[in-house]
Amino acid sequence: MGFLDEASDLLGKGMNAAKDMVTEGAVVAKGAVAGMAVEQRPFMKAFVRMCSDGWAQGWNERNGGNASYRMTVEEATACKPYFYDTPSSWVPLKTAVPQLGGAFFACTAAGSFMRNLAGDVAGNMGIVELSEAGDSWRVVWGFKDGGRPTSELEAHLACHRVRMEVTYGVSRVVYHAHPAHTVALSLLLPATPRALSRALWCAMTECAMVFPEGVGAVDVMVPGGEALAQATAREAERHGAVVWAAHGLLVTGATFDEAFGLMHTIEKAAQICLLARAADGGSARFDTQVSDDILRAIAASVGKTLDESLL
């Protein structure tokens, strides 16, 4: 090989090496930009704030609670350039949700601590894609180090399906936490929509404006189980919030503020109810009574109608 040939060969190797370095750098850069790009999206910031606020309220002890968000087509499209080049394998659902086929959901990770979410978003949550048939899911972003979506993903998807249908696509957020006063109230009263709804409405009259449809209720069940998922979905057909007896509360909403505000209102009303009972020796027969007619008038004042079956 002559001098010119050797020089040409070395030049070619150098160019290939440089190309490999650029390619490798592009992959690294994509990973870095991916985390920044997705985490900085407005919906992700709102998601993290809701979870952080829930932790600050004391609703999400340890790894308690979970949340999910049905992304819009525009949000999913904007995030796709930063998804993993190779998504995870498809994981079958126990119950298919064809109405949600092809949708993308941001959700917290199984076993993750809400208090850690803001400091490491991709490590404590991620984005999953549903198959077109709505019978399986796969991870496309986040869930670092082998993480998985919340163990109550099935309950979330079941609620998303129902709330999407009854709100004509408006509802997008599902948030589950363990607010102490709501759980305590579920131990005192029967696990029925009527018993819990009326106690909350009468404890704080604003409740008739915020959730005139009342709250749903599910008796004690195994967390993360299929039975809980389906029972919750049935209650979600009529109610934007469902109390899980001796467990917690699941709320839904069009926005993160709406979902958080619903849980905050229910929890405050439950606290007032318990305080009044404790101050009166455990009795629920207070001197000040809120009549059904007053409750109807309160709801009507903001253009809403109470669920008459709960009065």
Written account of the structure:
This protein folds into 2 domains: 151 residues, L-fuculose-1-phosphate Aldolase (3-Layer(aba) Sandwich), CATH 3.40.225.10; 138 residues, Class II aldolase/adducin N-terminal domain (L-fuculose-1-phosphate Aldolase, 3-Layer(aba) Sandwich). It contains 11 helices and 9 strands. α7 crosses α10. It is of the alpha+beta class. Strands 2-5-4-3-1-6-9-8-7 form a 9-stranded mixed beta sheet, sandwiched between helices.
Tell me briefly what this model is.
The chain is an alpha+beta fold and 311 residues long. The chain has eleven helices and nine strands.
Q: Outline the low-pLDDT stretches.
A: 1-36
Major sheet description:
9 strands, mixed
Strand order of the largest sheet: 2-5-4-3-1-6-9-8-7
Assess the beta-strand content as a share of residues.
5-15%
Integer tally of domains: 2
Tell me the total number of β-strands: 9
Predict the CATH topology of the largest domain.
L-fuculose-1-phosphate Aldolase
Characterize the quaternary organization of these chains: single chain
- Helix share, percent: 40-55%
| CATH homology-level superfamily of the largest domain | Class II aldolase/adducin N-terminal domain
Shape: elongated
Question: What attributes does this structure have?
Answer:
L-fuculose-1-phosphate Aldolase; alpha+beta; 311 residues; 11 helices; single chain; nine-stranded mixed beta sheet
Which helices and strands appear, and what pairs or packs with what?
Blueprint: H1 3-39, H2 42-57, E1 66-70, H3 73-79, E2 91-92, E3 104-108, H4 121-124, E4 125-130, E5 136-142, H5 153-166, E6 173-177, H6 180-188, H7 193-203, H8 207-210, E7 216-218, H9 226-236, E8 241-244, E9 248-253, H10 256-279, H11 292-300
Parallel strand pairs: 7-8
Antiparallel strand pairs: 1-3, 1-6, 2-5, 3-4, 4-5, 6-9, 8-9
Helix pairs in contact: 5-9, 6-10, 7-10
